[in-house]
Amino acid sequence: MQHTGHKIRIARAQLATALDLFLEDSDPVSVHCLACGGGEILDAIGSHEQRPTTWQTMERLMPPDKFDAVRRQRNEYWNSFKHYTTHQGAPRNDLPQIEDFDDDLNDHFLFIGWYDYETVTGSAPVHAWLLRPWWFAQYGKVAVNPEGYANARQEFAGINNISRAERKRLLVDRIRQAERDPVVMSKSRVEPSLHIPFPGPLFKPKP
Predict the structure, then answer these.
(1) What are 91's strand-pairing partners?
(2) Closest C-alpha to 1, from 165, 120, 167
(3) What whole-number distance in Å separates Cα of residue 133 and Cα of residue 15?
(4) CA gap 9, 2 in Å, rounded
(5) Residues β-bridged to residue 125
(6) What pairing do the DSSP bridges indicate for beta strands 124-125 and 190-191?
(7) Is the pLDDT of residue 174 over 90?
(8) Assign residue 8 a region: left if phi > 0, alpha if psi is -120 to 50, beta otherwise?
(9) Sequence-distant (≥ 6) Cβ neighbours of residue 188 within 8 angstroms
(10) pLDDT exceeds cutoff 70 at 168
(11) With 70 as the cut, is the pLDDT of residue 203 above it?
């Protein structure tokens, strides 16, 4: 369906810009909004097409109260960045959430968004493929993939002993290495670049 294709392109554009800013260690608020926006679209598409997205998997495996807490955490910060007023039209009292926000949260929502993008499309840029073990190496103990956690700990050995900035630089270095590897870049599931210019009516330049 053409509409679904447009929505996937929109979600990908948001996730690509979010990951670009993230790797530059820049503008975590924009990273969060873009990652959550793109991720929400892909979760809805996956649900509609009966593909197992991250949120659906977590809902199936987690106790209901824990899943609700994770979902609320995403919406709590995202809504505080998106909205000035409540549904009743009064200014929102969300300064505590704004002041409490930390870029570490973006690790999770970028991971979820790109994981669901690959679930829906079957491919992803190499940046997203490497984001996955980078995330698992740091947070894999909370996941239900012990093999993925073990492999990631080998690929990003010692990552928990370095600073936040150094962790991001390590991910950037691995991405640059992969981009120079023709074997990696020729794989059918690896998209050619993070940002892809999409032809067609959605992004058609004005005359």
Answers:
(1) 85
(2) 120
(3) 18
(4) 11
(5) 191
(6) parallel
(7) yes
(8) alpha
(9) 123
(10) yes
(11) no
At 69, list the tokens. Answer: 């807490």
Give the C-alpha distances (Å, rounded to integers) separating 137 from 62, 84, 118, 126, 144: 21, 37, 20, 17, 13
Residues 6+ apart with CB under 8 A from 96: none
Q: Shortest CA distance to 157 belongs to which of 149, 103, 114?
A: 149
- Cβ contact 165:171 at 8 Å: no
Contact criterion met (CB below 8 Å) for 130 and 175: yes
Return the number of other C-beta atoms located less than 10 Å from residue 11's C-beta. Answer: 25
> What's residue 84's pLDDT?
86
Question: At residue 147, what is the residue type?
Answer: E
Residue-averaged pLDDT of the chain? 88
| Whether 137 contacts 153, CB under 8 Å | yes
